[in-house]
Write a structure and sequence with these properties.
By secondary structure, this protein is an alpha/beta fold. It has one domain: Transcription Regulator spoIIAA (2-Layer Sandwich), CATH 3.30.750.
């Protein structure tokens, strides 16, 4: 039986898919994220938080291979309050496929190193299949 995945959110930088069977949200970034304004990124993340609650998703898979948005320290504080804390209350795990861009990858890793991200396991992978396997193992 094939699992049904449905696109639940899309903008010019990213697509978000929900798989009801695996209770997973898959966030797939594209290279246009390099040009993404911070306010659009914040709006997208707030929508992800809302959708994760509405859809009863327990896992998030982020394919960051084409994610090129670098987050500064000011953004980290906003993210902790508005994204990391609410997600850690709903989510069981998050897996990221790493960005090849060093500065982007460091900023993504730092954003979940804060105390709020520790309520849920978060791991970073180079391989998407390995990331999905870890995400869905009990």
């Amino acid at each position: 039986m094939m699992s049904e995945t449905m696109e639940v959110l899309k903008n010019k930088y990213c697509s978000l898919f929900h798989n009801k069977e695996t209770e997973t949200l898959d966030c797939i970034w594209n290279s246009q994220s390099y040009y993404m304004p911070e306010d659009e990124f914040k709006r997208f993340l707030l929508q992800v938080v809302d959708i994760s609650t509405q859809e009863d998703a327990n896992y998030i898979f982020c394919d960051n291979r084409e994610f090129l948005f670098t987050m500064d320290d000011h953004f980290h504080q906003w993210h902790d309050i508005n994204v990391a804390i609410p997600l850690s209350q709903n989510m069981r795990k998050m897996a990221f496929v790493q960005s090849p861009d060093f500065f982007t990858q460091v900023s993504v890793e730092q954003i979940f190193e804060e105390d709020h991200g520790k309520n849920m396991p978060v791991r970073h992978f180079e391989d998407s299949e390995e990331a999905k396997a870890w995400l869905l193992q009990n």
